[in-house]
């Protein structure tokens, strides 16, 4: 009981215990993979960026969602436009590299590149993401 309490209290020990548990059981560690959101001006730019991400093996899967309306503040003014949204499934450890790469090829001055960790899901799909995105 004391050991369990110590493990839960220490983030480093807890992470170590999770990795050990995952290695032994083959289970998914919450947050290992993430979904990144990237906005694009139009479908052609979205396809080009999605293909570039895939060519660099920075993702296992990219959805290109259809045109949607957007409202946002830009330089103090309320703007309205349409955009295409990419949903990028990748390893959480690749988010920094993905963000840097997308910023280097994206035509927007400040492109939206945000991510959320994947807490749970189909274990086979989550494993597939990891198999298709090389480790650092």
From TrEMBL:
Family of this protein: Belongs to the CutA family.
Known partners and oligomeric status: Homotrimer.
Keywords: Signal
UniProt source species: Grantiella picta
Keyword Signal: yes
Name of this chain's protein: CUTA protein
Gene Ontology biological process terms, A to Z: response to metal ion
InterPro entries (UniProt xref): Ion_tolerance_CutA, N-reg_PII-like_a/b, N-reg_PII/ATP_PRibTrfase_C
Signal peptide: 1-17
Parts of the chain that traverse the membrane: none
Pfam families: CutA1
Example of a GO MF term: copper ion binding
Keyword Signal: yes
